[in-house]
Amino acid sequence: MSRLADYFVIVGYDHEKERSGSSCGKILQRFPRTDWPDCPFTPGIELFCQPTGWVLSSQRQQPTFFVSVLTDIDADRHYSACLTFYEPVARTTKPDDEDLDDPDVIIPHHSQMFAPKSLVLITRHFYFDTFRNCLGIIYTAYMDHLPVEMETLVGNILGCVHSPPPGGPQYRFSIGAGDRQALQPPLCSTIPSTHDAVALLFDQLGVQNVINVYALSLTDHKILFHSQSFIRLTEASHALVSLQYPLKYTYVYIPILPSPLIEVLNTPTPFIAGVHSIHREEIRDLLDVVIIDLDGGSVHIPECVVLPSIPEPVLSRTIRALHMILHQDLLIADHAFPPSPSKKSVPPEQKDKEIRAVFIRLLAELLTGYRSCLALIRIHPEPFITFHKASFLGHKGLVEDDFILKVLSGMSFNTFVSERGPPYRVCDIFDEVYATMQDDLREEKADPSKTIHNVKQLAQQLHNNEVPNPQPYVQKVPKPTEGSYARIHQPTFPTLDEDKVNAIIEDGISKQAKNNKVTNGRSQKRIVPMGPAISTVGDRQKIVDNNARRLEVLRNCVNFIFDNKISDARIIFPAVVRSLKSKVARIALTQELGHHIQSNRAMLEHQQFDLVVRLLNCALQNDSSMDENGVAASILPLATSFCRKLCTGVIQFAYTLVQDHAVWGNQQFWEAAFYQDVQKDIRQLYAPQYEEHIMVRWRREGSRHRHSMELTAVQTQTPESKRRSVSPYKQKEIGALEIAAEQLRIWSTLSEGQQQEMINNEESTVYSQAIHYANRIVYMRVPLDCSKSLKNTGLDDDTKSNSNITASLAESDSVDAESGFDETEEGGNVVPDVIRFVTRFVDKVCRDSCVTDGHIKSLHQMVPGVVAMHVETLEAVSREAKRLPPIQKPKILTPALFSGEEIVMEGLRVYLLADGREEGTGVTMGGPSLLPAEGAIFLTTYRIIFKGIPCDPLACEQVIMRAFPVSTLTKEKKMNVQYLPHLNQWLQEGLQLRSNIFQLLKIAFDEEVVADNVETFRKLMNKCRNPATIFNSFAFTGLTIAQPATMHKQKEKNKTLRHYAKKTLLKTAKKAGIKTKQSSRQKTKYVLPTQQYGRSLTPRSSDSESEGGRPGSEIFDDLSIVDENEFESSLFADPKNLEKLLEKPGYHDYIRLGLGSLSLTATRDRSASEPFRISSVNAHYSVCRSYPALLVVPQSVSDDNIRRFARTHRQCRFPVITWRHSRTKALLLRASSFHSRGLMGMLKHNTSTTSASGESTSSLEQEKYFSVLVAATPNSARTGSYKTSFSDSLDSLDSLVMSGATGGSLAIPESSDTFRRPAKTGKSSRSSLKLKVGKKKLYASLEALTRIGSTKEPPRTATLNPARFSQPNGEVERAGDLISNSMQGLKKVSLYVLGEKAQMKGVKLESFPKCDFIPVDFYEVRHVKASFKKLMRACVPSSPHGPDASFLKAIEESGWLPQLQNILQLAGAAVDLLDVQGSSVIICLEDGWDITTQVVATAQVLLDPYYRTLDGFRALIEKEWLSFGHRFTHRSNQTQANQASGFAPIFLQFLDVIHQIHQQFPLSFEFNQYFLKFLAYHYVSNRFRTFMLDNELERMEAGWLLEEKKPHRLDELDEEAGFSQKHFGQQGGLGTPIWDYIDKHHRKTPLFHNFMFSPADQEMVLRPYSNLSNMKIWDYYLTEDLAHGPSYDIEVAQREISQNEDTDSLEMPGHMVRKIINGCYDNIMLQQPDHFQWQFQEILKLERDLGHLPRKWKTFWDRLQSPARDPSSLPRDMHARSHGRSIHKRSTLEILVKGKILGEAARSFAQPHRFEELTYTTAVNCDLCGEILWGPVKPGQHCVDCGYKCHEKCMSNVPRNCTKLKAISDVSTSSSSISRPSISETSSTHGQQDRVMTITPSQIYEQFTPSSTEHRTHEGYLYKRGALLKGWKQRWFVLDSMKHQLRWYDSMEDSTAKGFIDLSEVESVRPVGSKHVQGAPKKADESGFFEMKTTRRLYHFLASDSRVAHEWIDKIQGCIQ
């Protein structure tokens, strides 16, 4: 028996250290004065008596009691029971003001305060109630003056009262105050006692929160409780630790943390702590601490902490059992006849034990089989046992489970293994539960009601452990008089007599020593039950896939190898390699190979040896470095046995060729393998001593389970393995733990000599095994070529944790603890590294195994010699191995090249590896395994090409080709070591080349390729990728380019410092308004060349553009503003130049649109007749260098006015007319954004201050220009007649607002005249154009652009009531004030300006009448770049997607589709404003050459059918993209100077938008999807010059715009030559335009033609859906052609196809070969053309056979008559059009209203930014000043809401315009959020519409919003089979006959449907058998399957039985009939 309490301490308030009413504690007295020898006194107890601080109180406080926990240096816990009361004290205070007039005067203030005093008992026992009673008796004796001395009470507590041992009887005592008390010890000391603490914790937090905190504590996270009650903190901490039983919490444990020690919470180690709630604000800043509010019942988990999840089904079972205990009413809540409520409530103590029983069962289930993974290392003198973590995880299938990994890696589990691992010890409740857990689970699965029964039984055992005595003992404890603490006169607590107390203590101790006869009779050691074997509870899910047939193939392959039937083995070898992905097959392989070693067949021939090594490498490659399946451990003896003879005396073992695997560098693997072999040896040491009678006796003791670490999964699968390894004797083997248990039992009966002999035998066994493993490590770690450095020296990076503790202490010893650095030197000698590795291993295992120091020292001395001998042996092996004949490799195939394409570097032999795409891998998509492929990589002047054949011998007859233009290379990355199982090669060097045309080359260089050639290839590739100028690219290859020196000098700027200073001064003077002196010598800065076309251009970087944020400074680049006087020559000097410009498609388009013409005699006579003119103000590119020479402006605007106001826009890109509506005459204009300083007055200083003329400022000129644009818009001059004629529901903004507000579909007139197309007429003045080109006249007849007229009759629709938009109570909603104001501002104006939010805030609307400025959202270039990178990684991943990262999720995360949606919506808004509203629109975003071009070009495609033809689309691109200066060279990184900016796919994004429109309107485009893909490919390929340079000026300087065009001859040679460059006329080295190439192909073949194009049926104005659900992933991003590379290089693809066909014809001459088309290999369009293509090919063949001249395909096509339109489709088309228009208008309305709301919000109130300090690791620009913002020295500021970034010095000047405000819903939704009508109104409106429309039922019900709940015809649970490769899942199905749908939900309670099947698409429903359904759930009723066939796919369902299945079938058939 031990002392009940160790110390009694009196702690009081230290008045000497008082300061402002607070002080610290002071120990007044402690008993005994000296420390106990076995328990020293713990210092610092004063802090824990008052955890919140020692503070005086102004009021009397009640006494408090709580228990703190102190931990000593030995990790032993001491409990500090503290009772605190308050004593009155007199306090004198002085005023705090020290600035009194007379400092000598002191004014005292006397007041009575109350100081705390604490009585403390320090103990090692957990008897909180007894401590409360004892301290309460002392306090009662003090307060009520009991007739007993307090010295007696204290002395009795410390000396006379002792704690009984666990399992002892009840101990009754009294401390001398007339009290009667009892101590009841628990039966078992290892089981914690909790009383009702656990139940209280669940009441405070709830079930889910406690489970989360429990999981976090088990995974070593930091847990912090806070509460206002200290005793609650202690109880909660103790409850959490008790729930972890049988694990023991070994980290920092401080249930009550004093305030002065609050900094302890910043420790990096895990802890469980508690603080008072007054520190709630202080602990909020803790980043990685889980904070638990006990009072509020909340748990806060920081973002950096990942909540670990307990694996299923353990978690579900646990939660259900807890609900049975805590929420019994929940389980019967839905019962129709619930039982009557029980009046007897369950006491908290019982709940406590039942909850603990659930958690004990949880851990027992999680750790099931752990004893089978214990490895016995030593039995004597003390047992040493380790745990094989990898084997445990592998058998249970939990290798990837983060929760289990962290639990097994924690210190608590290591303690658990060391304490509970020995097989002969004292057992407790957990051992019994563990042994029977699997049996209980099987019973509970059959009968769920037994769950609560078993829980209650276990709870009763826990209760009996705490209260073993069923008879209660009535205690008598005196208590103080109620309210005694409030007495006015209270005596001071007396000072106790130390001598008297010590005398009582010594007397009690002496008496106790005489009477100490109580012993613990219950703690008896016994054999620990083994429990279930790990092999019986392992993961058998994948065993079905590895059936006996597959393993039989593996066994046959091994037999073929050893029978030397190499050809037969090679045939089935690929199948065996694929089967080795299964762990069962890998284990079977090791057993098969081990059987052949036993047959003395280890010496192999060369081919046998190669195949065996390949099998071993493949098995190791498919396994992880943990070796959780024991494959590597099984291969160790095989690798040291199989060998081949190289020459006389030189033998090569297999281990020399299987070294390059991570597992050999994992020291934990070597330790585990060593311990397993030691255990086998220890077992063999003692096994012969035991006979059958011992096993019988053990069975009687309950140890029936046998342990065997041999894996038996394969033994149950293959008959051969059964025949060889299963024997009757082996089934009766005695396990090592069972032997150890018996040895430990009889240890005490042996003599000392026998004991020493056993110790020596075991030590010798471990020592010999250590020698053996030291040699094995040397074998596996020393490479064959010792000159190479070691690989895989580090541990596998599998153990990742968000905790600060990365590994347990036991595992940390396995790593090099001496240094934190990697001591290996790359390329150095491997001998020191191997010696260090082996020495570290020897130290670890030998010291753990108690090997003597002498043996360890001898091992250290032996290791260097072993390594040196092995290195010497390997030198001969390496030398002879190099002399072996090389493996015959396939011939390098030469790719087909263009004319002019030259090979830069000959082919290097490489292997093309499979990436993340499934094409060609033959996995889920089927087909042959085409990758990896063996071939060569070539670098040409145009492409990077791989060409080879598959490594798989079954597919080696096909040719694999993957190529991309070298100019499209975006990223080059070196790869790590790659292993190819097909070739048994470790390839040391590899490259990953990623292209922006969505191609990826993962290549690994063959071992014959030297490193110098690889480096040369990389350098040449980068040189070809980054030419100095575009004239060094492939478009100009082979052509002599003249580069005169004089021209070079003209372009050279700032040659000297003097010249640079002069230029700077002139620019400064010009900006200051000082008139510069005109030089007598005119300088020619830009000369428009006539014949010098080969001029070299200096590449320009981004002029004033910054990707991160664009500066708003008024200081312009001198290239943007060029003085006109600097030019000497004029464009009009040579009339030929002007004629050539007038031949461009852009000018022809202006003429077509009626936007004026250019006259050489510039007169004003046409001003009255023509409102617009084509101005040559920018002919010298002096106004704007990025604009074209010819611009369309209003007739009344002079060139001088343009020069003045152009400066108000960035880059001087002022608004220019690009398109005019034929019906509404509205204008579409484009420009750049306004300057950030404001629209008006920013450049007033540029006007001359000395000038006396009345010249207007730039701002006034711009106001005039805007007024001219308003006047040019007919809408501004219309009267009421216009409003009347355009006020119908489709053509006015009023109806737009009303339709958006109602939220329903627009009312459709009954008349169908709205949709009738007016008759074609040719009377329009613009219907025909006569264009003079050379000597010929081309007459192009264009149809007049007719508008859709409105009906003259008033539409018969419902009248819109304005009162519908108000709230039911008649008051306007406050949140809608801003919206209503914006709605009022949405009046019809003549000109809308769509611009940036930041630029619109300074616009004064009163200066721009009839104009409206709408700020819009758009994606900047940096967002496009980031999104494109993610899109490439999603579409072309470098590695397969993980289980949590699917393809669609990656697409969603890229954000690409929302960017397309944004462009469509902005363009759609412009379409509606131009076509519906009749207003002009200006798009002015960014610099006007990126997003502006996208929106303007898209809007024109939607508005004008001409741009949907081939010629029109070319004209659109020439006009909007090329002439208006989209920076193709800069955005596509075509030159070396542009590489740093990054690739920005602006043009590709536009083509994708056109693709989306093409998908929705396939009848409206003359060109097909292939045409768009062709442009997308070649605009970055650098094959054509069209998409090069940044603006028209640069192309003019290059001579492209003024070149002489020659007529092209169309002859048959073009067809044969494939239109090589010599046949389409490069003139003077100017390169080839892409349009010539397209025209020639289009004339010959319908390659680019859309056969669905129907001009008569197309819409005049397209309004596509822009919802994300309507977006499609462009197949251009996803498809590839492995047969011939990209098909967009047409000539190369045709040549590759013809080569392959020639090869096939040579192999089978005279035979008709049937070609097999593979979707993942061939191009379907080329190999299997559609009907039209095939017909044209047949016609061409017939004409040739008949000897006729071939005619153009267009001639035949135009003769065809289009089929008549079905009249019945007209109503559907009417509805589709009306629905599309209404959705389109809503999107426009949302953009306008959102812009108005943001504009109003910016004007009405400021939205401040919320800045936080942020250190930028990459260079970015400040959004305010534009300067660089980077570096740790000066961190910047970052708005957490909108992302605005700036310097700290710029914060005060940042405008308060944070864009956090979200006034309306996202524009991606198709409905407006302004206001919605009531349900009844919506229903009535829909009812009127339904009488008009004829649409499908599903569309009706999508719009229908019923007032009642949804209609459910039939409902219930069914199993539904997922899509391809997905399993069965149970869903709640609802059959709705009203909506004609079959919907499914996750559960019955779920209100959101996860999907539905439209019953109108159902074709049949019928029952099927289970044989027709794959992957059916286990124990499924075979008659419960039925299938539903729809027009889209086939669905499979599973009901509970046949009756339910037939009921569903009947219900569904009743709905579809």
Report a brief summary of the structure.
The chain has 2017 residues and is of the alpha+beta class. Helix 9 (348-366) packs across helix 13, helix 9 (348-366) crosses helix 14 (450-466) and helix 34 (1199-1205) crosses helix 35 (1258-1272).
Can you describe this structure?
- It contains 59 helices and 53 strands.
- The longest helix has 35 residues, at 1770-1804.
- By secondary structure, the chain is α+β, with helices and mostly antiparallel strands.
- The strands form 16 sheets. A 7-stranded antiparallel sheet has the order 27-26-25-24-32-31-28, covered by helices on one side.
- α43 crosses α47 (1546-1560) and α43 (1456-1477) packs across α56.
- Percentage of residues in DSSP E strands: 5-15%
Give unreliable regions as ranges. 94-110, 539-546, 700-731, 791-828, 1038-1057, 1074-1130, 1160-1167, 1237-1256, 1277-1384, 1608-1628, 1705-1712, 1801-1806, ...
Work out the radius of gyration.
44 Å
Q: Major sheet, described briefly?
A: 7 strands, antiparallel
Helix content: 25-40%
Q: Which structural class do you get from the secondary structure elements?
A: alpha+beta
- Tally the helices: what do you get? 59
Shape: globular
Q: How do the strands and helices of this protein lay out in sequence?
A:
Layout: E1 2-3, E2 7-13, E3 22-23, E4 25-31, H1 45-49, E5 54-55, E6 64-71, E7 77-93, E8 109-123, H2 128-144, H3 150-160, E9 162-163, E10 171-173, E11 181-183, H4 197-205, H5 207-218, E12 222-227, H6 230-243, E13 252-254, E14 271-276, E15 289-293, E16 298-300, H7 314-326, H8 328-331, H9 348-366, E17 374-378, E18 384-387, H10 389-396, H11 402-409, H12 411-420, E19 424-426, H13 429-446, H14 450-466, H15 498-515, E20 525-527, H16 548-562, H17 566-579, H18 583-598, E21 603-604, H19 606-621, H20 631-639, E22 643-647, E23 650-653, H21 667-686, H22 692-700, H23 719-725, H24 736-746, H25 752-781, H26 809-812, H27 831-848, H28 853-881, E24 903-912, E25 933-940, E26 943-950, E27 960-965, E28 969-975, E29 978-980, E30 985-987, E31 990-995, E32 999-1005, H29 1011-1025, H30 1045-1051, H31 1057-1072, H32 1135-1142, H33 1145-1152, E33 1172-1175, E34 1191-1194, H34 1199-1205, E35 1216-1220, E36 1227-1231, H35 1258-1272, H36 1274-1277, H37 1280-1285, H38 1293-1302, E37 1328-1333, E38 1336-1341, H39 1377-1385, E39 1391-1395, H40 1397-1400, E40 1411-1415, ...
Parallel strand pairs: 12-14, 12-15, 13-14, 21-22, 36-41, 39-40, 39-41
Antiparallel strand pairs: 1-9, 2-4, 2-8, 3-5, 6-7, 7-8, 10-11, 15-16, 17-18, 19-20, 22-23, 24-25, 24-32, 25-26, 26-27, 28-31, 29-30, 31-32, 33-34, 35-36, 37-38, 42-45, 43-44, 45-46, 47-48, 47-53, 48-49, 49-50, 51-52, 52-53
